[in-house]
Write a structure and sequence with these properties.
CATH topology: Nucleotidyltransferase, domain 5
Number of strands: 13
Strand order of the largest sheet: 9-8-7-6-10-11-12-13
CATH class: Alpha Beta
Helix content: 25-40%
Largest sheet: 8 strands, mixed
Radius of gyration: 20 Å
Order of helices and strands: HEEEEEHEEEHHEHEHEHHHEE
CATH superfamily: Ribonuclease H-like superfamily/Ribonuclease H
Low-confidence stretches: 1-63
Number of domains: 1
Distance between the termini: 36 Å
Shape: globular
Strand content: 15-25%
CATH architecture: 2-Layer Sandwich
Length: 330
């Protein structure tokens, strides 16, 4: 089917180059649960938000992005993202929280003339949270043809090698200041249970079958950096006393794609969004928010003509060794 028809369904070698300096761009960010809002010039917000807990009274925001377009923003219901929202029949709750995973198309002003057909049908945008053990495991299923998120998988993860007191301190420090520690305590499950549910989700979307070598089908993980799949998932599998699943053997590091496509270095998600003048929505370092923002960066890069290729692969028979496929990388 032609790309234009597909989009109508959506709610939307070697390089030699000189690194160019970052240019400041209109940019703003606000935390989903914090009353503090940081603004740069040319960005307008019509109301403030204060949300000490997930079930507090959240106020939808209307803001003007750098391109002048007015957008409405509401915090995601974190019970809904995990399939556990019990208030879908409450009009007040539904009005104040977002219960959709779709994204608005990030326009680059050039339409689709630079869009390139991709090697993968789907991208799985992953951004883990948790330094000691994984605390949050969010994945967005991104359709490479419609350039929209079609589903999400989101679980909070319960550490297995920490005392209850240490867990409480860990979660308070990580999520307490933005008011989602209660949701975490209500919903967190063990990592091996997360992986079991994740595999069922992959199978539902026909992206994976255990009987067929356990690799992804027509899909690839996209991360912002190598840490998530190179380091953290293998570490967590050791802690959980489980074998590293085969579908974690290769991935796309969006930072390397960005570097080689735009010919300039962006060390992280925030710098990419600043350069592309994409407003940061939600709370940075909340995994489900970061995956949505990474997907919006990827969406824009696809519109600009980027080709998303694998950037890293584990060596067959030696999963601790990783081969990096791009010469110029971060």
């Amino acid at each position: 089917m032609a790309l234009s028809m597909a989009l109508s369904r959506a709610p939307l070698s070697r390089w030699s180059f000189r690194l160019s300096p970052l240019k400041p761009a209109p940019f703003f960010t606000f935390s989903r649960y914090s009353s503090s809002i940081q603004l740069q010039p040319n960005c307008k917000i019509s109301s403030s938000a204060s949300l000490p807990t997930e079930e507090s009274m959240a106020s939808p925001l209307q803001f003007e992005a750098p391109n002048g377009k007015k957008l409405n923003w509401k915090p995601l219901c974190l019970y809904y993202t995990q399939g556990k929202c019990t208030k879908m029949d409450d009009p007040v709750h539904v009005d104040r929280f977002n219960h959709s995973c779709s994204l608005e198309l990030e326009s680059n002003g050039l339409g689709l003339k630079n869009f390139r057909a991709q090697k993968f049908d789907y991208f799985l945008v992953l951004d883990l949270e948790g330094k000691v053990e994984i605390l949050e495991f969010p994945v967005l299923l991104f359709d490479a043809k419609t350039m929209n998120v079609v589903d999400l998988f989101h679980r909070f993860v319960m550490p297995t090698k920490m005392s209850d007191q240490r867990i409480n301190e860990y979660i308070e420090g990580k999520y307490g200041k933005i008011g989602i520690d209660g949701v975490w305590h209500d919903t967190a499950i063990a990592f091996d249970d997360v992986i079991q549910q994740f595999e069922a989700w992959l199978a539902k979307h026909h992206l994976w079958r255990k009987e067929q070598d356990g690799l992804l089908k027509d899909a690839a993980f996209v991360t912002c950096g190598n840490w998530d799949l190179k380091t953290k998932v293998p570490q967590q599998c050791v802690v959980a006393r489980m074998k590293l699943p085969p579908y974690f053997m290769e991935w796309i590091n969006l930072k390397d794609i960005y570097l080689n496509f735009y010919k300039r270095r962006a060390p992280g998600m925030i710098s990419m969004m600043r350069e592309l003048q994409i407003p940061l929505l939600g709370s940075h370092h909340v995994g489900i928010d970061d995956t949505r923002n990474i997907a919006r960066v990827m969406q824009r890069m696809l519109l600009d003509g980027a080709l998303l290729q694998l950037t890293a692969r584990r060596t067959a028979g030696s999963p601790n060794n990783v081969q990096f496929l791009f010469e110029n990388r971060i």
